User: Fold these one by one.
Assistant:
Number 1:
Amino acid sequence: MLKKLKNRIKEFLRPTDKTVQIKWSLFGRVWREIGKPQWKWLLAGVICTILAASAEGYTITLVRRIIDQAFIERSASSLYLFGLLIVAAFGLKAAFTYAKDLIMSKAGLLAIARLQNRIYSHMMKMDVAKFYGGGIGKHLNYFGVQANAVLNLVTGTIIQAVQNIATLMITIGIMVYFAPQLCVMLLFMAPAIIIPLVLITRKRRVLSRRSFGIANDVSQHLNQTLHGMKTIQSFGNEAIESKKFAEIIRVSNLNAYRNTQASALQAPLLEIMISIGLALSLLVGGHFITSGVISIGDFTAFLLALTAAYKPAKSITGLNGGIQHGLLAAEVLFDYLDSKSGITDARGAVKLKRGKMSVAFDNVSFSYLPNEQVLSGISLAVPAGTICALVGPSGGGKTTMFNLLERFYDPQKGKISINGKDLKKYTLHSLRENMAEVSQDVFLFNGTIADNIRYGAPNATPKQIEAAAKAANAHDFIMGFPKRYDNNVGERGALLSGGQKQRIAIARAILKDAPILLLDEATSALDTHSEKLIQAALKKLMVGRTTFVIAHRLSTITDADQICVVRNGKIVEHGTDAELAAMNGEYKKLRDIQFKKTKK
Ligand SMILES: Nc1ncnc2c1ncn2[C@@H]1O[C@H](COP(=O)(O)OP(=O)(O)O)[C@@H](O)[C@H]1O
Ligand SMILES: [Mg+2]
């Protein structure tokens, strides 16, 4: 038991690791980015704070005068005046405190809104590799935990510091002014207070940093499970997920408790030191009064000031923890805000104007992760207005080619060009404006069907939306819903079937009316009958557009102008349906299997 205690104390005193050093220069950045825009509010808040502290100090000097003038000199008439003054002083203190609270709340709300808007627009511009890297749950924390911790640095911690320092200076001023002899005595006690506090602060800094990592784990886990609830339940993994969560919470609690162990020590330590100070002051002060060095009023003022100093002194010792926590959050947050998107407009990028578009891959190689080549040496020329089909085993790299075309990623080697010009020379916005994609996994936003179809063409009229839905063979099932086009699709389109979602995505692409069309297994979730209908619609849509089609069912691509068989990141066969069928290779094999099936 004793050994355990000894170990705990040892662990507590263990020097903190070097990585936890605080960069004080961050203060400047925090001020510039968060404090400065609200400087008027903050200044007003600081003034109110100082005025409130002064009013409090004034009440102490009033008590001293009451004792020395009214009681000792027995002048009853001045009692009325003092009574009034006391009420007035407290009234002022209350008014200034209230004003400070209102002002600081205003400053805080303005600052956090600004900060959150900044985080949001930064997130919107992130390249997908960075965005998805390390899970998306952590992004949520920047808005909540981190933003608030940084904000608190300005509107909470710093104002608190001002308030406490002002009160402390006023109370110490009173003590020194009325009873300097007693103050000298108290001075000797200072080291006994400071040394343990420094140790505690060091410990808390480590725990603070750890707590951010833990907060990320919590939101990461929550985010994943919220989105994967059906999968979890279908695999019967409820208990396993709960257990994982319990473990994360346990670690989080342990860390929080360690923090309490350290921080809760501060107040009692300080209290003991102050009580010793009080006891000594009483002893020595009593002696001074009887020997006539100081008056009873002076002594009372000293005692009142000493007790009034307790609260701010305690807060100041706790303040350091808050500052450390805030600065750590600021460091993480600013790192996030400073991270540059890898995919941006090149200098002098031009707008890609609408019109005919030819696309070419020129010896393109790409990997998502170092040393895991996904595409190697892809070369391909697609003339304007023609159809290029990509087929091959899954994992071959077909969707990746689309990702590169839309510049979600840039190839490490080679280049992709439109109308003979490198993709990177066009502005990102205009590039994507000229492409419409129906992707493998359709994403719908929580909103109405009409909203979702309109997503790529915000100004579309209801008539245009309906026409697009008709072309996508979606109109009929939409009319079957109680609210028709105003029916909600649910979170991520959860209220629709896979085939329905796909048809809405097709309508969305039709409405966008872009010169380059990217269809990634766009009809895979449909039954054969609907597929035929949509195929006809898509065929009409493809006219005059440069189209890339990824398809598993070869029957849908037999009339493509060129077909590429993509395997292990390479184009292994290339030609028209007839040419490839005659080659007796991979395509022929796939074709034989599929057409035999349909013939049966
Ligand atoms: N975001 C990603 N990060 C890392 N690897 C990826 C990512 N997306 C796909 N891959 C990998 O790239 C390869 C090609 O994937 P993909 O282009 O989706 O194939 P296909 O569409 O032909 O089925 C696969 O091995 C896959 O595991
Ligand atoms: Mg794919």
Number 2:
Amino acid sequence: MSSVVLLVAVLFFLLLLRARRRRRECEPPLIQGWIPYIGMGLDFRLDSQAFLKKNQEKYGDVFTVYIAGKYMTFIMNPLLYPSIMKHGRQLDFHEFTDQMAPVAFGYPAVGSGRFPDMGDQIQRSFRLLQGDNLVPLAESMMANLNLVLRQDFLGGEGGATEAVGKGWSTGGLYDFCSSVMFEATFLTLYGMPAPARRHGDMAALRRHFTKFDGMFPLLVGRVPIWLLGRTKAVRETLIRYFLPQRMQRWANTSLFIARRSAVLEQYDALSDTDKAAHHFAMLWASVGNTVPATFWALYYLISQQEALQAVRQELHRVLQLPEAQGPQQSEVMISKEQLDQLFLMDSAVNESLRLSSASMNIRAAQEDFSLRLDERRAVAVRKGDVIALYPQTMHMDPEIFTDPQTYVYDRFIEDGREKTDFFKDGQKLKYYRMPFGSGSSMCPGRFFAVNEIKQFLCLLLLYLDLEMEEGQGTAQLDNSRAGLGILLPAKDLRFRYRIR
Ligand code: HEM
């Protein structure tokens, strides 16, 4: 019996050896590990940054790693990023989303051939998140932020906070940011349940969303949903929220979501549940990163009162408000034009994004080809392989950002304007801050996202005094979403606030 087991083990080992890739001429160094399918996946997941830095030191700027069934070629030097962007024809972003979306969100792949022109129509709809369309979006977001903040937190009743005397209230900072931004973003994009101004079941929706979001890295890592406890049921509940017959009853829906519904309606091959799943995916895209990004933007400001005061001063100057503004009696409205003048706040938000973002930019090779890196170097890439940029290593590079672990709220400002000169090896970088990805696949919601974070900060700085509670240490990053966007804090921290 034992000799049979041994024989099977030897055969399995030989099969593994056969299945292992051999590095061909001109291909980058190859790191594939010994565990079938998983390859180096565990090492990568444990601490992706450290893993990549270690291999960069050993193998140089470009190397291929076998992770979860994929050969991924990492480009580590940001000076090489522009060359990657130039290979748009051979390197495709949507192949990856087309594989990932059905697994994570449960709708059929857009590029499966069953939905002619749908991908292009969806891409065109992203324009409704940009340019002049940002003006009505900003107005609506402002009204919704005011609504949620004032009713839940400034009226003194309800909400996730406790009164602690002397006018101070206290709460969990992440929970606070999440409850306000989740609902205000939802109302702005999807609309309200006319004639009411707020949906009655937002807290339950957010609770389900948070559960799903916690499992998201595992779904993207191809862990079957049936292995993930109640995740499938939770996802179904979330999807049902967006069934067309429900959404038709909502008023003030943004042009962007209205257009998305109209595009989906054109395809008989989509069931109502598929359409709802598309809308749910957009909810994930629109709040999954924005909520943690808002947390970090606010956390760093509150933790560094000097930064908070400077940003508040700029705000008062732009709004032409007296320095010691008392409690606000009426709703504050800040125009998109005024938001655009808040350069210091922009810098503070960008700095917090630099410190908290860990998105991986992925492109799938459409053919075997030679990837030109610079004038001197090119590497061979095989069809189906993935080219990956991991900008977190750039964001934390001390050569580009002095003292990279430290929050410097005015790091991205120079002479009162945005600073754009950052250098590596003495050369000016074209890409130095990439929380929103790059090139053709860059996040279409980035302008809306930064606006809404700034709007949220504006209202808080005008309405409230804010402090972190003492004795709880500093916020740490939870790495479980590494590669997928903005990292969450490892645990929520308590803060206190009072009306100014
Ligand atoms: C701080 C907040 C946000 C961050 C950090 C963020 C980041 C990203 C990143 C890294 C990507 C992938 C880009 C690539 O791989 O090159 C992406 C894609 C996307 N984001 Fe965002 N995002 C944010 C907010 C938003 C918002 C508010 C919306 C919508 C209102 C949105 C909609 C999308 C969509 C639709 C895509 C997919 C684009 C495509 O398929 O071509 N995002 N985002």
